[in-house]
Every structure is written in C-alpha cells, then in structure tokens.
Amino acid sequence: MVSIKDVAREAGVAISTVSKVLNNYPNVSEETRKKVYEVVDRLGFVPNTVAAALSSKKSGRIALLVKMNLKTQAIDEINMQYISGAICKAREMQMDVITIFYSMISDMNVEEMTRYFTAQSIGGIIIYGMDKEDMVLHELIDSGNFKIVVVDAPMVNENTSEVTIDHKQAQKDVACKAIEGSDVKSILYIAGMKNGYVTDLRLEGIREFVQEESLELTVKEGDFSELKAREITFEYGKDTDAIVCASDLMAIGAMKALIEMDVFHPVCGFDGIILMGYVGKQMHTVRQDFAGISAAAVSELQRLFDGEAGQKVLLPYELVRLKYEDIIR
Amino acid sequence: MVSIKDVAREAGVAISTVSKVLNNYPNVSEETRKKVYEVVDRLGFVPNTVAAALSSKKSGRIALLVKMNLKTQAIDEINMQYISGAICKAREMQMDVITIFYSMISDMNVEEMTRYFTAQSIGGIIIYGMDKEDMVLHELIDSGNFKIVVVDAPMVNENTSEVTIDHKQAQKDVACKAIEGSDVKSILYIAGMKNGYVTDLRLEGIREFVQEESLELTVKEGDFSELKAREITFEYGKDTDAIVCASDLMAIGAMKALIEMDVFHPVCGFDGIILMGYVGKQMHTVRQDFAGISAAAVSELQRLFDGEAGQKVLLPYELVRLKYEDIIR
DNA sequence: TTGTATGCGTTATCAG
DNA sequence: CTGATAACGCATACAA
What's the rounded Cα separation, in Å, for the pair B226 and B224? Predict the structure, then answer.
C-alpha cells in the first residue's frame, strides 16, 4: 500500500507538506504543490480515509440515519433514493459515509448514541424522516456534539440545518391541479402520521386551499398507511367529490378502493414514487427529487463542517402525473 | 470520549489486556476478563472501529458493491433488501459497512480499485449482481487481495464464496406451478440478460422442464427489461399458451401487455417483489429472501476472515403468489 | 514556506 | 497470563 510517507519520500518533501498540499492548505509554494501532485498520481496514491478520520476529529465521516419500514416497498423507494443520492454526492465531496437504520439504535439513549457515533469517528449526521416524538434525536441535536442536517424537520441552530421542500405550498398546488376541471365541492383529506412534521405543513396547505376555494373539508388520519387510506376511502369516499392524500401510497390505497367501489373521484398523492405508474388510473402528485434532496443535505453538512451556521434549505418540487408508459424502461 | 486507555486505568490492567479481553483472546484469566467487562459497561465504553481498522489490517470493514442504475428512479426493492439485510447483520457481527454503487468505480482498473478499497481499510467485499463481462471484478477476485462473497455468481476459491439459491430448480418449480391446471402446450420464455450468470441457470431450468413435460419452448431475450418483455409479449404472446419470465418486472410487463391484448395466459415471474401485488392479476413467482441472502453473505465473509476457505452457500426459496390484500398494511 | 514531533485509539509482538 | 511498546496512516501544533 502506498502511503503518504511514500509520496513524501518520492517527492523529497516532508509528510506534513504532502498533507498540507492534499488538504489545500494556504501556505504551500506552487512549486512543491506541483511536485507533490505529480508524485501522487504517478504512484496512484489514495489517501486513507480511515487514518484521516482517526487523526482529525473534524473529519468528513458522516452517517445517514434512515427510518426504514421493513414492510412497505414504496417507502423503500424513497429511502433508496435518499441513500444513493447521499452516497454519490459524498463520494464526490470525498466524504466517508455509513448507513444506519434507525431501528438499529432506537433503543439507545443520547449518551449511548453519542458514544456510538463517536466511536465510529462520525462528525456529521443526516437524519431522514424524523418526527416530533423522537426525543432522543432531539436531544442529540441539542447536545451540539455533531453537525446535523435534518430532512423535512424544522431543526435549525448553530450546527443543525434543515433541507426540505415547501410542503404547504406543494400540497395546495397538487390539490388545485387534481380538481381542476372537475366540479368539486368537498374534499376528503387523508393525512399522514400525527407526529410527523410534514403532516402539519401539508395539512395547513390543504386547509388554506379549501378556504380560498370555499370547499368543504373532511380530514382523516391515514398514518401514511395504504391500508388505512383504503379503509377510510371505503367509509367516506363516496360522500366527497375528491380525495387528497398526504402520500402516494395512501393515494394508491384510496384509488384502488374507489375502483372497487366503482365510483370515480379525482385522487392525488404526494411524493412522486414510481409505483404510482402501476396503478392504472393516473393521479396527480408532488414529485420530490429525493436523491437531489439528499445530495443537498450532504453539501449542507459540508457547510456546517466548514464552520458556517445552520440554515434552512428549500428545494424545488414539481407536479407530475405518472403513466405506466413513462416509468417502464 | 472514553477510550480503551480509560478502561485499562479504571480496571487496573494494561491496555493490551483490555484489547485481548475485547477480542476474545484465549490467554486471559477469567478474573481479569470479568473485571474488564465490569468497567467496560460501567463506563459505557464502545470500541472505536476506525482505530481498530487502522491498526489491524484484517479488520471487519466490508464494502457492499451494489449495481444500481442511478440515472433513472426505479423501484429498487431488491437492492434495498440486499443493503438493509447486510447492514443489519453486519452490525450484529460488529462489522463496519460501507455501501458503494458500481457506477462510482466502474471506470477503474484493478489496481485503482484495489487502492480504493485498501485506502478505506476494506478487507472484505460483497458483490451483488455481477455478470460475466465484469472483467475488472473478475480480476479483483483473482487477485486474492480481498475476501469476497459474490451473490449469484459461481466464484469460489480460497478466499471467495458464493451465496445463491438454486435458480435452475426454482425456475422449473415456478413454471410447473404456473401452468398446473391449465392446458398448456407451448411456453414463451422471456430470459434475462445474456451475460448474467443466473440467466443461464434459469434457462437451463426451463429447458429441462419443457423437455420433461414435452412442451414447446420459445425463448426470447428480455434483458430484465419490463419494456422489452412487454414488446416481446405483444409480438409472440398470443402464439403460446403461457409466459414464463426470468424476473418479476418482466412478468409485470408481459402481464400488462396480455391484458391490453385482451388474452389470458398464465404468466409467472421470478424474485417475489412486492410490486407484483399491485398488478391486479396474480402471478406465481419465486420468492427470494434478499435480506436473508445478504445476511448470509455477511456471515460467509466472516467465515473467510476467520481463515476458512470459500464455499458455495445455497439458500432456500419459496413459491408465492402475491395478492394486493397481502402486501398492504 | 517547510520540516519535526506528537497524538488519534487500536492491535499485535514480544518480554517478563 | 500480563504488560510495555511499536506500528497503522494521517493531521497539526510548533519549530526552524
């Protein structure tokens, strides 16, 4: 294995000089910089990220904290996008990534969790799908021991950023799109999990929308469950003119129920997962670029590592309608 | 951060002794072992895996090499199962995991790839979805520089194991199940990628099956593409009595095409992905426990780390038929 | 601007 | 059976 020592010897400089060149330190002459780089790619030197992480505590080792649902496939689609988006971006930015499923550490308290991450030389964490009741995660954020980027949760402080889309506006937009052209007077809204942050935002959106449009609104808790949405639809589906769902999965559940009931109402979802293309009936939905969101989270983490303060990063979304023909390849 | 040094001091022994206890070395008295463990969990000590990896070259740091199409957002249920299965098992076995997508390193040659892994202190690799034309991966395996477990590819040597199911038998079984009760004389088989290892095995299976049952067989290359299976079905679907597909996605493509053509033939798939439940028509398929396969791969890697020779590990499969009602929750 | 020396938290090799 | 101590590869104060 070719190490920094070999490069130093070959280039006729000190190890520390090589290190400085590699880490873009200011005070290095252009000449030695060139010389070092020449040797680096002549020898095909690749810095050992593990050693770097050990040596410097503020290394770029980050953890992706994913809440995975072992049952539902569509949820996996989203997490897969999150994971791949982060991993690719992280590699681009020379950061080391480990993926952790929440269930693996959900029994820990803050101290244990802190030790767990510290023991792995992890300095930054990206949290996906955090909800209001994840007390330990809240404490972890408050502790200030790590740079953290939270996706879709309003946590911003000196070393915590949020990356998200405008859920409220998106919910309004998609509802609007879904009922346009139909004579809709009342809407059944199937909401997400009660303790979810996005649930509130989307709920706000739909409330504002029905107010502006003078529509009637019925809200039911769907818990992001396809089955629950299905049951809710069976019970209340025919009494309203349209069904707006807080997730694609629930929209699918609702739509399939409507079909079985042999009634047709506009249904719209949220997320833009591919699965929507398989349902037969096309539905409007909000397409989130999960991989892009995740990549942005990685960049944001880098910003925090660079000592800048946390902030809220708002990313775009788009309204789509997935056809089977569009999604197969 | 509490380190091994703190434990040693607190327990009144040497650092090396603590290390030996933690790594289950033989020559340690039961007494000191107890004493050390007592201090370990009193202090909540968690070993730093990064330091361990740096120090010991034969560390349990492993890489998951996943082939995924990152360009298109796809239903990547299988890879997600692979990844989560491996990560969970690895944590259980105290191994460190990093996930790498093949596209991130596909432009490297063996030397570069070797340096890349070495630089990350990676000693073991699990390769998913390798095919015959991945020359660099073949070289990587032959180099003997890493302990490697390959999923679904016949690579076994001193430090390489294979984990797989009996694809040939499974293909026979599912085809048999699919046509049982129907008067089928001819079968359209939509095969996978030409350069895939499992493609050959499954093809063998279906060939043997039609021979035993004296059926007619037409084989077309579907490349594991839903779209291609759809097109093939449009072209040849009505001339045969049943369609056997080498993957669920292709089965879905074929089934949807048949529905559009308004003809009904038995169709069966392979893999057992949840998506099958969304198609409407139920199809028989081979359910592979991807997470379990992946977990087995991790265990196998540990075996290799322990100095044992590579082997072929055969895991079970089952025949299923997914209904929408079964998959939603 | 460059080099020296020390430390990061482990593992592993020897003496004892 | 236990304890010093030298690596592992890199980062970084500090000295030159």
Answer: 6
